[in-house]
Amino acid sequence: MSARLQQLKERADAELAKARTAAEAAEAEKRDMNETEQVDYDTAVKAAKEILDAIKTAKADEAILDEARKLSDEVGAPESPDNLKARVKSLGLTVVESPEFKAMLKQFTTSDGTVRIQDRAKVQSDPIQVKSLFTGASNTSGGAFVVNDRTDIVEMLGRKPLTIRSLCSNRRTTSDMVEFVRQTSHTNAAAPVPEATSSDAPTATADTETGAVTFTNVAGGGYKPQGSWAFEVVQTGVKTIAEWVPATKRALADVAQLEGLINDELRADVAEAEENQLLNGDGSGENFTGILNTSGIQSQTFSTDIVTTVRKGITKAKLIGRVNPNGLVLNPADAEKLDLLQDGNDRYYFGGPFSIGSTPVWGLPVVQSETIAEGTGLMGDFSKAVIWDREQTTVTMTDSHADFFIRNLVAVLAEERLAFGVTRPPGFVKLALA
Fold first, then answer.
1. Which of 29, 87, 258, 427 could cross-link 384 (Cys pair, CB 3.0–4.6 Å)?
2. Residue 425 near residue 432 (C-beta atoms within 8 A)
3. Per residue in 336-351, pLDDT tens?
4. DSSP 8-class letter at 426
5. 164-198 in b/e burial notation, b at 16+ Cβ within 10 A?
6. pLDDT over 80 (residue 292)
7. What kind and span of H or E run contains 251?
């Protein structure tokens, strides 16, 4: 097996192992695969199929090269004395005109230009590079059989990790508008109540102008205190995040992996836009109202250092937001500053370079996201941020756009529809980290 085939086989085995891992995790827990596991499984299986196709192509290419080498051997056998002389002459000129051959003869050349080699003299030159008759540069010789080794590797620019969706509550909706009820005030009047000592009814007093009747409790009546709650109905609309690109029908037909590549990239673009909306959407037009711009979330100014600031934010989340925060979102640059904090003896606060995984801060797991701006942190109970999926990301193709039909073009469109809302704004605290 050639090195290329071995490499392709190893890559296919690796992708199949990924798919097997995603499936076995769900099977071990006797459940269906979740969305992340399903995406990992589909992606790995798809990649494995493409690699197997590349293996078939590579095997076919090697068969062609074997035939070409056989043909080269046949061509190398001279059919006539004249043909043999021509080949020997061509090879001889290559040798005698080489710099290595001339350098070797120089030590045996006299002042008058005559070459004299003694009987016992050792004659040896540096290696002389001679082009093979089969792999010559001319496309009229054996070089015509040499095919560039085009691999199936397509190296993209890379994507930032997306983490915010996995923190939030994920639900489904079949409507274009989602409503939820949010408490706005609460008066707790609960108190110990003495036994009643009077059976008299409350006294009623009517307002002479308005006619409103006010009841006054009778002393010793044993009345229970009345509390009060107030609520509001909050609406959040289902909105669409979409992107499309043009492609030619010929390109999609000729390049097997192009359609999958476009689909994957469009889905990733939509997912990146979604994460930005969940955090930073300003609520204008068709933008979502992201967590950082939701009215009612708390703020914590910078205090001494990042660690102190986070701790003060935890207190606000608990006392005012009445939640136990379950996550701390930081930009990777701020997470780096946190990891590099040292005490007076140059010891790292958070385990240093040999710690495994992300070290919690005050018990909060640190989640890194490039979507949040450097110098800003967000903490809170992320179960209070809810995504309602109306339609998960789909990719469709059509030539029914402008004049695409007559130009053999297709529009490849990716879109998703979802709603988003923060059910308890005070449960989140925006942190100033500098």
1. 427
2. no
3. 999 999 998 989 888 7
4. G
5. bbebbeeeebeeeebeeeeeeeeeeeeeeeeeeee
6. yes
7. helix 249-254
Rounded to an integer, what is the distance from CA 301 to the centroid of its chain?
31
DSSP characters over 371-433: TSPTTEEEEE-GGGEEEEEEEEEEEEEES-STTTGGGTEEEEEEEEEEEEEES-GGGEEEEE-
The rounded distance, in Å, linking the Cα atoms of 290 and 279 is: 5
The Cα 124–Cα 105 span in angstroms is: 9
Tell me the angle at which helices 35-76 and 3-28 cross, rounded to the nearest 10 degrees. Answer: 160
Cα(276)–Cα(420) distance, rounded to whole angstroms?
A: 12
Which residue, chain included where needed, has tokens 């903490």? 379
pLDDT digits (tens, 9 = 90+) for 69-104: 665 555 454 445 555 455 545 556 666 667 777 777
* Strand arrangement, sheet containing 327-330: 298-300, 428-432, 376-380, 327-330, 366-368
How far CA 357 is from CA of 190, 328, 352, in Å, comes to 47, 15, 11
345/352 Cα distance (integer angstroms):
13
- The amino acid occupying position 317 is A
Q: Which amino acid is at 227?
A: G
405 DSSP assignment:
G
Q: Where are the alpha helices (H) located in 255-382, listed in sequence order? A: 258-280, 306-319, 332-339
7-21, 288-302, 338-352: the lowest-pLDDT one: 7-21
> What is d(CA 272, CA 199) in angstroms, rounded to the nearest whole number?
69
What Å distances lie between residue 417 and 133, 160, 209, 270, 288, CA to CA?
64, 22, 56, 11, 12
- The CATH code for residues 164-177+238-432 is 3.30.2400.10
**Listed residue (72, 67, 65) closest to 5, CA to CA:** 65
Query: Are the C-beta atoms of 416 and 274 separated by less than 8 Å?
Result: yes
- Is residue 370 within 8 Å of residue 160, measured between CB atoms? yes
- Token reading at 96: 């005698």
CA 194 to chain centre: 64
From the list 236, 272, 271, the residue with the least C-alpha distance to 388 is 236
The answer to whether 284 and 415 have CB atoms below 8 angstroms apart is no
pTM for the model stands at 0.64
